[in-house]
Amino acid sequence: MDLFSEDVGVPFEAVRSFHPQVGGSPTNIAVGSSRLGLKVALVSAVGRDRVGDFVLDRLSREGVEVSHSPIKPRARTSLALLAIEPPDRFPLVFYRENPADVMVTIGDIGEVPFASARALLLSGTALSSSPCREALMWAAEVARGGRARVFMDLDLRPDQWRHPRAYGLAVRALWPRLDVVIGTEEEAWAALGEGGEEELETAIARALAPRSGPGVFILKRGVRGATIFTRDAVPQDVPGFPVTVVNTVGAGDAFASGLLLGFVRGRSWAASVRLANACGALVVGRQGCSEAMPYLQEVEAFLERYPQGGAPDGD
User: Which residues sit opposite 125 in a β-bridge?
Assistant: First the structure.
C-alpha cells in the first residue's frame, strides 16, 4: 500500500492527510498494463492483514489476476508513505520489516503458466532476498524455455541491499535468462558493475554482446526520453514529451507498462518506447502511482497531439 500526501507542496512533517492506493513497482506495472488492455497476472505476496486485503481487492477491481499471489501468515504487507513537493522533492518512507512480497518461494509459484505468457516482467528488487531471489530465477528459466520474452525492470532500491555491490552481482547472475532490460543510467551502472573512464554506452554494448543474454537494453533518460540499445544495431534515441511535473514517482512503472503494450502488439522497439514515453509523461503530470496510470484511450489521445514527439501538433 502507498499512502500519498494530499497536501501537495508541503514538507513531509507538515502533511495532514494521506490517500491510500496500491503501490510497489511490479504492482504499479500490473495495474498500468491492465488499464492499457493487457491480460495481466501478478506474482507476489501479501500478509494476512487488512492492508493485504486492501491490496488484493484493489488489484482485482483493476482486472489484475491475483490468484498467483499467496498470503503469508507470518509476514506483513509492505507500506510506503510519500510527500509531494514538486518539481523535484518526493520524500519517501518505506515500512518493509519482514515484507511478504520477498517471501515468495518456488513452491508457491509452481502452477503459474510462465512458459505460455507473452512476456514476463521481473523486478530487480525481488532479487534482494531469499527465497524470492531463487523463485524469480526459476520463473525466468521456465518462461524463457517457452514462448515468453523475459523483461527486467532494474528497479534499484539501495536501502533494500546489504551491500552496494550485491545488487549488481545478483542482476548479472540472472543476466543469461533475460531478453530485455529496462533501467535508468544510475541503475545501468549499478547492474553492469562498470565504471572508471568507460562510457555507459560502451558498457551496455559489451553487456549485450553475448548471445546467451539479453539482446535489448532500454535506457531511460528522464526528460530526454529513452535510448534503445540492441545487439546488432546502433543506439536509437526516442525523444520524450514536454510535461509539467507534479510527481515523478511511478513514471518509470508507467513506462514499463507502455513498453509491454508495444511489444505485445508487435510494434517496433522505437514505436514501443514512444508509447512508453507517453505513458510516463501522463503519470508525471498527475498525483499518485497506480491510480495515476493512464488508460489506453488517454494514451492514444495524447499521442495524437504529438505525432512527431516534441511540441504538440500545430505548435
Answer: none
Cell numbers describing residue 139: 520463473
Question: Helices 269-284 & 251-264, crossing angle to 10 degrees?
Answer: 150
Write out the H or E segment, with its range, that includes residue 301.
Answer: helix 296-305
Give the separation between CA 127 and CA 136, rounded to whole angstroms: 7
How far is residue 210's CA from residue 18's CA, in Å, rounded to a whole number?
47
Strands 180-184 and 216-220: parallel
Which domains does the chain show, CATH number per domain? 2-305 (3.40.1190.20)
Residue labelled with grid coordinates 524469480: 136
Asked if 155 is an active-site residue, the reply is: no
Are the beta carbons of 83 and 12 closer than 8 angstroms?
A: yes
Paired with 5 in beta bridges are 18
- Cell digits of residue 115: 512458459
Q: Which of 155, 253, 313, 315 does the annotation list as catalytic?
A: 253
State yes or no: pLDDT of 85 exceeds 50: yes
Predicted confidence (pLDDT) per residue in 38-67, tens digit = 999 999 999 999 999 999 999 999 999 999
Q: Strand 149-153 to strand 119-123: parallel, antiparallel, or no bridges (unpaired)?
A: parallel
pTM: 0.95
Return the number of other C-beta atoms located less than 10 Å from residue 246's C-beta.
Answer: 16
Please identify which residue in the block is written with the cell numbers 573512464: 197
Establish how many alpha carbons lie within 13 A of residue 114's alpha carbon, considering only the half-sphere containing its beta carbon. 22
Tell me how far apart the alpha carbons of residues 297 and 303 are, in angstroms, rounded to a whole number.
10
Task: Please return the burial class of 177, using the count of CB atoms within 10 Å of its CB with bins 0-12, 13-18 and 19+.
Answer: buried
Residue 89 to residue 95: CA distance in whole angstroms: 20
CB 226 within 8 A of CB 276: yes
